[in-house]
Write a structure and sequence with these properties.
Layout (H helix, E strand, L loop, with lengths): L7 E3 L18 H14 L3 E4 L1 E2 L5 E2 L2 H15 L4 E5 L8 H11 L3 E5 H4 L5 H15 L2 E6 L2 H12 L9 E6 L14 H6 L6 E5 L4 H10 L3 E4 L16 H14 L7 H8 L2
Parallel strand pairs: 1-2, 1-10, 2-5, 5-6, 6-7, 7-8, 8-9, 9-10
Antiparallel strand pairs: 3-4
Helix pairs in contact: 1-2, 1-9, 2-3, 8-9
């Protein structure tokens, strides 16, 4: 059993969830700030932020991100790492995603490898962007949806397209689709194929999110939970808020003998 401090990230809203899905989904900077504070108190070290436009739709607007980061930081200070998403969500293409990250220059970002690995970017563009992330010491989590993504990542690392840096991987157990429920078994192919030095975390869908988180923690990985992918507690009841999902994962980590990482632990580990 690993005693590596467990990095507990909360993804409180995602690109698609609305108030009709759950009234506690945070859709504004002020709501994100309040939720981030509750999740910090429950044990989270990092918050994965999506912002919305005036109509509540997914947005990568630079000024919108700057405002959200300002408001959330005012609520939590340096006690949480604020990770922005560059997710396309069927709205943005790779050049716009990269441009947003460069303009915002966040402390931390998540990037979907398959979203950026496009012909209009090419290997040269990937090398330029990942080189910039490494030089700027942006804490970068690379999202991998399947073994093909993991192998592509390994190939890019092997030839030096992606330079050596403290990258952080996220294994996605399943797909963003109606009724999706993940299984802890979905994690095993990733773990078996992962031969690199990068620490990894997982995210999962549905009420089995907690079981998947437990498996990840037991195998030495890290955990992302939250309303982005799941609204249910481990007993199948609706979670009152994101903090309740964080708290049950924090309790699980303690039961496994894994202390919880702090935001400062992340900054030391990933060079932010």
């Amino acid at each position: 059993m690993s005693n590596d401090p467990l990095i507990l990230t909360v993804a409180p809203n995602g690109a698609y969830k609305q108030a009709v899905d759950h009234p506690a989904v945070p859709l504004t900077p002020r709501a994100l700030a309040a939720e981030a504070r509750r999740c910090l108190q429950a044990g989270a070290a990092m918050v994965h932020l999506h912002i919305r436009d005036a109509q509540g739709r997914h947005s990568l607007d630079v000024e919108g991100y700057r405002e959200a980061l300002r408001v959330v930081h005012a609520a939590v200070g340096n006690e949480l790492v604020l990770q922005v998403t560059s997710e396309a969500a069927r709205v943005y293409a790779a050049p716009a995603q990269i441009a947003m990250v460069r303009a915002v220059r966040p402390e931390a970002v998540s990037v979907g490898l398959r979203e950026l690995d496009q012909p209009e970017i090419g290997d040269a563009g990937l090398a330029d962007f990942f080189g910039w992330l490494a030089r700027e010491r942006v804490m970068t989590q690379v999202i991998l949806y399947d073994l093909a993504d993991l192998r592509r990542w390994q190939a890019l690392r092997a030839v030096g397209t992606v330079p050596d840096a403290p990258w952080f991987l996220l294994f996605v157990l399943g797909r963003y689709s109606a009724g999706q429920v993940s299984s802890p078994l979905d994690l095993l192919p990733f773990v078996a194929a992962h031969i690199g030095p990068e620490p990894w975390a997982m995210c999962a869908f549905g009420a089995t999110e907690h079981a998947c988180a437990t498996a990840a923690a037991a195998l030495g990985g890290h955990v992302r939970v939250g309303f982005e992918n799941n609204l249910l507690l481990k007993d199948g009841s609706t979670a009152p808020d994101n903090a309740a999902l964080v708290l049950q994962s924090a309790d699980m980590a303690r039961s496994l003998g894994r202390p919880l990482a702090t935001a400062q632990d992340l900054r030391r580990r990933f060079g932010g």
